[in-house]
């Protein structure tokens, strides 16, 4: 069977993921937030005996090497060698999409233009002459609407056509620049890519392409010919955009001037207000958090009874196997009833905010506070995701372009309680010690995070990444979209975390039966002394390193259900702090290793554990004075 | 990779420009060739096409503009001068030259008109942060000191000659609207974008 590799590219939020869903069925996240897809999503489908592998790439405005998104997309385009590219274009502002189209055309990869948001454009009085566009660029173009599946057949028809050797339009630059391109082209090593394209990339200071140049001396000779272009890369961009704008104007007909809808304008006037904006943002997040905790605890109670009634027949018949199985089931139960409601609810609410388009406004409002913490505005996304589960949050740090910033942001996930940690704070500290005590733990997390931020500021030299963020229009949320997205986000939790809970429970049972727990507890008893806790609590703390949901479950099985009589409120508080200021579990550690490498991940994990335990001990000491 | 018709369009316009710059005098092919910088074959094709349209007259090795060709040539020369002036104004004298050279074939009509207005105006442009909210302005120049932000900004559609409007002022910068799209830009970025208030322009 013939196989085709097709990449979908386009600006952020232009509907690439939505198009992929329409082409192959739902499996990708879609949101009204720029930069949700930070990795490439692949999906296969067979059309007319041709197997097509689609690759959905992160949104970009141009191919340069400034951000992670651009790097990822470039890797797909030029290293993995795609057969064709679908540029998803925004009909409401065609020239921006054409800029990208022109850049791809220069690379010689066949392009199909998919014109999205046609209805939106029509409402704004913008009409595009598709035939004319095709004629000028000499590239196939189709109107699409992935939501109604309009134009999907036309698009697939175009995708399956063999376009090799089609001569398309490409921009022409100023004669000095053209001469420089020619000169560099002669010094380019043999490659699959057109030499003119490589030469252009080199001229545009794209480091990734320097490797193709045979002899670096060429830069000197070329520079001599470019006296009049001290900023040649800027002149190239200007010409390319000028060309894109020219073509866009030729094919666009504006029947009436579009005006911003009054409602949109009013909402933004409030949400982006200098003082009300940040206040509303913080209020929204507090409400979100409050709703989460409230509904979460209700659902938790209901589920706890339910799972217990289902699992009780299997529990404890005294035999060795019985103990192991019952402990494993106990772990699963903890996962389903404690963490699941929080995770699912959280992602549902987050999905709603994303879909409506409110999240970028929140980023803008909180940017100045995050900047104080030496974090870029965009770091809000991974930090919020961290309230659900740390694993996807670590992955989401990819929305940041600088490695250093990404690592800094990831380090703050130590203090952002994920649902499993919230479950400890609410389910253990709050349940047995009262609401106020659990709030005190949250406050302690915040204070410890601020101290951490202060230390990081001293350690890591702050680099400023300027805020440039597109604010999409508000849209009506789609329930289906939110549900799909929430499920995709919590899939990891269900398939990885819950099995791990079962394994953890079983391992604990084995260790307990064989008496190994004592061997663990004895050498670590100074730790218990430092934290002012009974020695046995070391077991849940140690197992918590593997998986935080084990902590609560194990505390119960170690101390019995009468925790209130065994631990004083202060001890519960210390226990809460000691177990939550951490990289929460071994899976999160895995995610960190994948993103930042073994050394950095271990460094961060160890530092965070030491920091958390020292902090908890110090606070305990401070409080026990009173 | 460039389509032939595309090259032909540029060459044709270049020929008309050269003839226009020569003040419509009879001009020899020898003189035109180095200025247009294409192969003889393409040049011949372009000349043929122009002759067919009745814009020029070919007499042996000399070409001259016909009556019909004169306005077209004048237009192109003007366009070129406007762009050249524009670049002289917004970039330094030393840089000013024919970035216009290619742009003249492509820049959109509206942006062109705006640029023309800009280059005849003596008023000084101001950084974007200094204009009032909700007032439309024209982008005159974009420059950032030693940074790689230029292409990012340009490719988002924030381009000299385009209209821009501050919709909201936020703590760290501004929210602007360009071509139906909204962007939040930090103060430092907004300082690198120079504009002229539209009413005066």
Shape of chain B: elongated
Output the strand order for the largest sheet of chain B.
4-9-5-6-7-8
Radius of gyration of chain B: 21 Å
Task: Give the integer mean of the pLDDT values of chain A.
Answer: 83
Rg of chain A, Cα atoms, Å: 28 Å
Low-confidence stretches of chain A: 28-36
Question: What is the name of the CATH architecture of the largest domain in chain B?
Answer: Roll
Report on this structure.
The complex is a heterodimer of chains A (626) and B (201). With 626 residues, chain A is α/β, with parallel strands linked by helices. In chain A, 62% of the residues lie in helices and 8% in strands. Chain A has helices at 16-24, 68-79, 94-106, 118-123, 130-137, 152-160, 175-185, 195-203, 217-225, 232-251, 262-271, 276-311, 320-356, 359-372, 380-385, 390-396, 403-412, 419-433, 435-459, 479-514, 516-521, 525-531, 538-546, 548-559, 563-566, 569-580, 586-596, 598-624, and strands spanning 2-10, 41-47, 50-56, 84-90, 111-116, 126-128, 141-143, 252-254, 468-471. In chain A, the strands form 2 sheets. In chain A, strands 2-3-1-4-5-7 form a 6-stranded mixed sheet, with helices on both faces. A two-stranded antiparallel ribbon of chain A has the order 6-8. In chain A, helix 3 (94-106) links the parallel strand 4 and strand 5. In chain A, helix 12 runs antiparallel to helix 13 (320-356), helix 13 (320-356) runs antiparallel to helix 20 and helix 18 (419-433) packs antiparallel against helix 26 (569-580). The radius of gyration of chain A is 28 Å and the shape is elongated. The termini of chain A are far apart. Chain B has 3 domains: 4-72, Orthogonal Bundle (Arc Repressor Mutant, subunit A); 79-118, no CATH class; 126-197, SH3 type barrels (Roll), CATH 2.30.30. Chain B has helices at residues 4-21, 29-36, 40-52, 69-90, 99-106, 109-120, 149-155, 187-192; strands at residues 27-28, 56-59, 62-65, 126-127, 136-142, 163-170, 173-178, 181-186, 193-197. Residues 89-102 of chain B have low confidence and may be disordered. In chain B, helix 1 crosses helix 3 (40-52), helix 4 (69-90) crosses helix 5 and helix 4 crosses helix 6 (109-120). Chain B has a 6-stranded antiparallel sheet with strand order 4-9-5-6-7-8. In chain B, strands 1-3-2 form a 3-stranded antiparallel sheet. Chain B is an alpha+beta fold and 201 residues long. Chain B is built from 8 helices and 9 strands. Chain B is elongated, with a radius of gyration of 21 Å. Chains A and B meet through helix 3, helix 10, helix 11, helix 14 and strand 9 of A and helix 1, helix 5, helix 6, helix 7 and strand 6 of B. Strand 9 of chain A pairs antiparallel with strand 8 of chain B.
């Amino acid at each position: 069977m013939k196989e085709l590799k097709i990449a979908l590219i386009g600006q952020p939020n232009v509907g690439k993921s939505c198009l992929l869903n329409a082409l192959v069925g739902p499996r990708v996240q879609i949101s009204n937030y720029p930069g949700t897809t930070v990795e490439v999503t692949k999906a296969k489908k067979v059309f007319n005996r041709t197997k097509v592998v689609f690759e959905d790439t992160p949104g970009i405005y141009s191919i340069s090497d400034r951000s992670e998104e651009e790097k990822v997309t470039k890797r797909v385009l030029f290293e993995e060698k795609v057969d064709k590219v679908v540029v998803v274009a925004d009909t409401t502002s065609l020239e921006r999409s054409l800029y990208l189209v022109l850049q791809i055309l220069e690379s010689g990869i066949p392009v199909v233009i998919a014109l999205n948001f046609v209805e939106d454009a029509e409402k704004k009085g913008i009409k595009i002459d598709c035939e004319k566009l095709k004629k000028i660029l000499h590239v196939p173009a189709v109107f699409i609407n992935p939501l109604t599946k309009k134009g999907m057949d036309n698009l697939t028809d175009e995708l399956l056509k063999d376009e090799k050797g089609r001569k398309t339009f490409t921009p022409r630059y100023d004669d000095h620049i053209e001469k420089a391109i020619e000169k560099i082209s002669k010094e380019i090593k043999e490659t699959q890519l057109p030499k003119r394209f490589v030469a252009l990339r080199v001229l545009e200071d794209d480091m990734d392409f320097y490797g193709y140049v045979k002899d670096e001396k060429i830069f000197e000779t070329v520079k001599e010919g470019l006296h009049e272009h001290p900023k040649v890369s800027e002149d190239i961009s200007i010409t390319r955009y000028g060309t894109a704008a020219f073509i866009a104007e030729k094919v666009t007909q504006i029947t009436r001037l579009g005006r911003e809808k009054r409602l949109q304008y009013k909402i933004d006037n409030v949400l982006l207000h200098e003082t009300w904006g940040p206040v509303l943002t913080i209020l929204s997040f507090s409400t979100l958090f409050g709703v989460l905790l409230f509904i979460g605890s209700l659902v938790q109670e209901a589920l706890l009874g339910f799972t217990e009634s289902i699992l009780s027949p299997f529990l404890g018949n005294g035999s060795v196997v019985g103990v192991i199985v019952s402990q494993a089931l106990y772990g699963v139960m903890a996962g389903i009833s404690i963490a699941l409601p929080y995770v699912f609810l959280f992602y549902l609410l987050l999905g709603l905010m994303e879909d409506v388009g409110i999240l970028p406004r929140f980023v803008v409002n909180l940017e100045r506070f995050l900047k104080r913490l030496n974090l870029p505005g965009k770091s809000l996304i991974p930090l919020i995701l961290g309230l659900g589960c740390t694993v996807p949050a670590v992955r989401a740090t990819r929305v940041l372009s600088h490695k250093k910033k990404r690592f800094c942001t990831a380090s703050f996930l130590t203090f952002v309680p994920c649902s499993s940690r919230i479950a400890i704070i609410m389910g253990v500290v709050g349940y047995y010690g009262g609401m106020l005590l659990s709030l005190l733990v949250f406050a302690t997390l915040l204070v410890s995070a601020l101290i951490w931020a202060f230390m990081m500021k001293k350690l890591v030299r702050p680099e400023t990444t300027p805020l440039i963020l597109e604010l999409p229009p508000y849209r009506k949320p789609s329930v289906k979209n939110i549900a799909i997205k929430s499920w995709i986000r919590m899939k990891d939790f269900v398939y990885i975390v819950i099995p791990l809970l079962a394994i953890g429970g079983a391992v604990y049972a084995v260790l307990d039966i064989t008496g190994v727990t004592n061997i663990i507890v004895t050498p670590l008893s100074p730790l218990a002394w430092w934290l002012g806790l009974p020695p046995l609590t070391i077991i849940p703390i140690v197992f918590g390193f593997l998986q935080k949901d084990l902590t609560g479950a194990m505390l119960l099985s170690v101390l019995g259900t009468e925790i209130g009589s065994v631990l004083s409120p202060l001890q519960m508080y210390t226990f809460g702090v000691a177990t939550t200021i951490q990289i929460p579990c071994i899976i999160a550690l895995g995610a960190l290793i994948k993103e930042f490498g073994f050394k950095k991940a271990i460094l961060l994990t160890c530092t965070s554990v030491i920091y958390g335990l020292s902090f908890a001990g110090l606070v305990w000491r401070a409080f026990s004075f009173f | 990779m460039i389509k032939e018709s595309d090259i032909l369009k540029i060459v044709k316009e270049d020929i008309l420009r050269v003839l226009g710059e020569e003040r419509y005098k009879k001009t020899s092919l020898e003189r035109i060739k180095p200025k247009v910088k294409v192969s003889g074959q393409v040049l011949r094709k372009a000349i043929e096409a122009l002759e067919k349209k009745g814009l020029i007259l070919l007499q042996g090795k000399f070409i001259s503009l016909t009556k019909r060709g004169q306005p077209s040539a004048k237009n192109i020369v003007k366009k070129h001068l406007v762009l050249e002036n524009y670049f002289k104004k917004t970039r330094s004298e030393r840089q000013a030259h024919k970035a216009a050279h290619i742009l003249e074939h492509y820049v959109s009509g509206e942006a062109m008109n705006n640029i023309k207005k800009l280059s005849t105006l003596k008023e000084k442009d101001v950084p974007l942060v200094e204009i009032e909210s909700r007032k439309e302005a024209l982008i005159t120049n974009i420059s950032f000191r030693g940074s790689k932000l230029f292409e990012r900004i340009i490719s988002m559609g924030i381009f000299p000659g385009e209209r821009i409007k501050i919709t909201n002022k936020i703590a760290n910068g501004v929210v602007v609207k360009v071509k139906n799209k909204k962007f939040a830009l930090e103060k430092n970025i907004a300082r690198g974008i120079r504009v002229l208030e539209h009413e005066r322009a």
